[in-house]
Amino acid sequence: MAMFKKFKSLFVEEIEGAQETNKVHADSMPKAKSKPTPRPAAPVSSNEETGVPHTGQVTDKFMKILFGAMDKANLDGFDYLEFKNSLNSLKKMQQMDEATRFQSAFAMAQTMGATPQNLTQTAQHYLNVLEKEEKKFEQALDGNMQKQIGTKQQEMKALAAQINEKEKMIKKMTAEIEASKKKHQKVLNDVKKASTKIEVTKSDFIASYEAIRAQIVRDMEHIKKYLS
Questions:
Q1: Residue % of the chain over a pLDDT of 90
Q2: pTM of the predicted model, to two decimals?
Q3: d(Cα 209, Cα 197) in Å, to the nearest integer?
């Protein structure tokens, strides 16, 4: 819990602020065709039950997973995370602009042997850690989809075949056909529910992942901009 609070204090405030800024900016921009970006900030999945799209949210559940991986991979000595902590400490000084904040934090970091190259390299290290977690999540998600949906899809196909055969039979088989149709509909609903749940989970993870990643990338850009 202490680890989670520490990492959350480093990232979440800026993530939430960036999300709000992006939302306001998006609402104010005119509708226009644009090329799709390879990494959406908040992926959207379709909710088949309600028809309302699900926008991925930054959640404590996935933050804990991602922060936990970063904590386990924490490098010895003064690295990007310690520098990030110094940056956050300087936020209290409201009169300090961003460039000054980075330069002041770096001045303190230099006393610990930090260099712009070291900060960038260690920030990249944590990006690599996050990307490994993304791959692990995708593998787990694929397995979960096969477990929850794959067998039901096979069951649904088999039931559909039964329905086609029974519809060719005489009227006395009507009751059996109707029973199979109801079962088919139930299985279809189960598939939709399972699919929606998985898509919601996926979009929440990606939103959490992208929020942290975007912050690290932005800090790397600032390091290069202000400190190199």
A1: 39
A2: 0.58
A3: 18
